[in-house]
Amino acid sequence: MLCSRCGVNPAKQYTIRTADGERTEWLCSACYQRRKKDAHGFPTAFPGKAGGAGGQSCPVCGTTLDDFRKTGLLGCAHCYAAFRKELLPSIRKLQGKLQHEGKTPDAQSEERYARKRELVDEQERLKTAFERAVREKDYSAAESIKERLFEVNHKLYRGEKQ
Asked: With a threshold of 0.85, does the pTM exceed it?
């Protein structure tokens, strides 16, 4: 099918929303882009049918709530606002929380990381000291270092608190 505006290029079916209602129109990508710009940055044409069974669709990309339910995918970032009420239970179920916490660790995580780093550093020092004590045949020192190394390893790998 050819574009109903220019009559030259292959077209896709779009549902055009106007103040009077909706109508179907076949547009090529160039005419679709022009139509979007004519609306001052707010699209007036959307791919496929608007609404669907639920009657709710994203005002920017035209993704319907039924599309989301079928595929589990949203069409654009604006879909989150358009379907907020319907998405919240799904987001809570999948992520456990509704509030995004980001990639930066909280203060407790930073403290745990710093403590683990200290234990790893101590482990390295103890290994070096143990090897030196064995080389020098100071077996009593090597035994006490080995015991301390065992404690550090236990805390490091078994999560024991100090």
From this structure: no
